[in-house]
Amino acid sequence: MDASGDGRRPRPVRARGRRAGLLCAAAALAAVSAPAAAQAPAPADPYPVVVVDCFSAAQVQPEEYILACGDGNNRLVGLRWDSWGASTATATGTDMVNDCRPYCAAGRFRPYPVRVTLSAPRPWPTHPGVQRFTVIRLLYTDTAPAPVRKDVTYKLVY
What we know:
Layout: H1 13-39, E1 51-52, E2 58-59, E3 65-66, E4 74-84, E5 89-98, E6 109-123, E7 131-140, E8 151-155
């Protein structure tokens, strides 16, 4: 029993103060986040443009990409993507090319710094609603592997 003699216990003031504080904080948070939500960027596209690899798998900003699907003697590695948009994607990395000397199985992979640009998105025939890049441009920033030019463009057919 409490000191008032009516048998009821008074509610502690701390609990009321804590509850009021939480309600005020929640209201303030709602007031602050409402304008931010109105200005928030649009959610990421659930179906971004992809690049299709040798195994017919969709890739977005891959760290590696095989250019020579038949034998794997040419691949891009260490790709760092500067952009990945709806019409183009750009990266820097290294093109590792097998010199095939004296023959490919005994050859040595040599590194060539390269700037990569993906472009020309088109619908991916086997995946409705998905766009895939269909062109890759390689711009060698130092030397290019012989007999390749320093600036080459290939169609991606996968």
